[in-house]
Amino acid sequence: MIRLPAPDGGTRKYTPRTEPLAVSGGGALVSRTVFSAAHVVADPYADTTPDSPAAVDWDATLAFRRHLWSQGLGVAEAMDTAQRGMGLDWSGAAELIRRSAAEAEAVGGLIACGVGTDQLTGPTDLAGVRKAYEEQLALVEETGSQAILMASRALAATATGPEDYLDLYGHLLRQASEPVILHWLGPMFDPALAGYWGSADLDTATETFLDVIAAHPDKVDGIKVSLLDAGREVALRRRLPEGVRCYTGDDFHYPELIAGDDQGFSHALLGIFDPLAPLAADAVRTLDTGDVEGFRATLDPTVALSRHLFRTPTRFYKTGVVLLAWLAGHQDHFTMVGGLQSARSLPHLARAYELADGLGLFPDPALAEARMRSLLTVYGVPQ
């Protein structure tokens, strides 16, 4: 039994489960391409401040990527789950990309890496945005990784309308040596991206997005959509050129979007698959056999945890992700680059623990309980 914070400000008793959920494991996933956007593990011994460059525990960070690959998932590297732009600057992201790409090559793991403009630290113009994108694209391609063209805060601040997006993305797609994944991250994940694609109206923005793809379908492997709007994603998915895939980034509706309908389905590139990796992979293997009901039966119960972790303000979901990695034994501490372990309240963290434990996500429930108990004690919750 463990005491967790109660809604009335007191405490309540919770009895953790004693056994983890049994998953079958197995080889590569067949029916869907599935990426997990992966978090970084901070170095807890580094003498840093929230404004310091990120101090990363590289051994633990790469070990976690090997864990994802061992489940059959791909790694989406240096994305927002890795605290890109929220503690991890371009210098740190570049090192992360180099190290992870080398590790992927060594183990035969699938990897795609984020290309952005976060080396820009002040006002710029469109030429500066293009140059920044080009620098990052060159680095990712040099490592042999697939590129994910991420939404750019600098472009959102600089562009004057849809034409600027069409011109810049057209230039980058022509320059890319291999097909890329285009990333549309909504303002719920990053408020600085409001009005992306040249309009705050999502219908208008969608048309510009589709125009970019239609002009260069041979250079677009797929799109990653993170708008938390299942209906909009399905409508967009149905309008993609043949051969261009949709990778859902919807951490609220992923089971139904991956399962799909009689007109198609989404692949996946999800932050929630960081803590859900073994269970998510098991569900997709079930889907590989044609058992849609079994897939949904496995994955649907995880949505409550995902909605909790990604609740407003959504951009702080990383705190819950790292908490669960610590509780699951993937790292030895609950510390984050930029000090973001403080970005969620104790009741929020306690509920994340309870939901994850209920799903059987912790390989060693006793370890998770002991670690959660230690965190609660630091916060002054009597045990």
Structural notes for this entry:
This protein has 383 residues and is an alpha/beta fold. Helix content is 42%, strand content 12%. It is built from 14 helices and ten strands. It has an eight-stranded parallel barrel. Strands 1-2 form a two-stranded antiparallel ribbon. Helix 2 (90-107) links the parallel strand 4 (74-77) and strand 5 (111-115). The longest helix is centred in the first third of the chain and has 18 residues, at 90-107.
Question: What key phrases describe this protein's structure?
Answer:
two-stranded antiparallel sheet, 14 helices, alpha/beta, 383 residues, 10 strands, 8-stranded parallel beta barrel
As laid out across the biggest beta sheet, the strand order is: 3-4-5-6-7-8-9-10
Taken in chain order, the helices and strands follow as EEEHEHEHEHHEHEHEHEHHHHHH
User: Given the helix and strand composition, which structural class is it?
Assistant: alpha/beta
Largest sheet: 8 strands, parallel, barrel
Q: Which quaternary structure do these chains form?
A: single chain
Shape: globular
What number is the mean pLDDT? 96
Number of strands: 10
Total of helices: 14
Q: Helix fraction?
A: 40-55%
Q: Tell me the radius of gyration.
A: 20 Å
Q: How far from one another are the termini? A: 9 Å
Indicate the low-confidence ranges by residue numbers. Answer: none
Strand content: 5-15%
